[in-house]
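Subject: design request, 137 residues
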């Protein structure tokens, strides 16, 4: 018997994920849009012992929200310093406002990744954010 005749085994080793698990996992990601890291933190603390699936997504959403917060604050501080320095260069002085678009573009990227993760969580899939600090394991 060759390998082509045997059916592929499903790669899902988790128990059945309930609709409530999917909903709370999705809310972990989506709540970060309005509440930053507080929404994922609250949902994760309340639901982490009830479901491994929600525990996983809660940690992912919380790690990403904390990472995004750290990067956003660092980016803003760096751009303020750079803006003050560049303000002394007469030719560039009028274009310093363009630096303000960088945090906006970063925030749009964060929103897109949060929505993507929320959709994947609601579909019952595990999603791992790229470029994320793993502060909570």
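Subject: RE: design request

Done. Sequence follows.
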């Amino acid at each position: 018997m060759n390998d082509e005749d045997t059916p592929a085994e499903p790669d899902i080793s988790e128990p059945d994920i309930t609709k409530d698990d999917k909903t709370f996992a999705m809310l972990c990601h989506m709540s970060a849009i309005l509440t930053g890291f507080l929404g994922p933190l609250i949902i994760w603390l309340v639901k982490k012992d009830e479901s491994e699936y929600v525990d996983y997504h809660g940690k992912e959403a919380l790690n990403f929200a904390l990472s995004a917060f750290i990067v956003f604050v660092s980016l803003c501080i760096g751009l303020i310093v750079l803006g003050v320095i560049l303000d002394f260069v007469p030719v560039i002085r009028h274009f310093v406002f363009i630096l303000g678009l960088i945090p906006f573009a970063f925030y749009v990227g964060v929103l897109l990744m949060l929505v993507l993760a929320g959709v994947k969580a609601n579909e019952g899939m595990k999603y791992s954010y790229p470029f994320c600090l793993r502060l909570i394991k």
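Confidence is low (pLDDT under 50) at residues 6-13.
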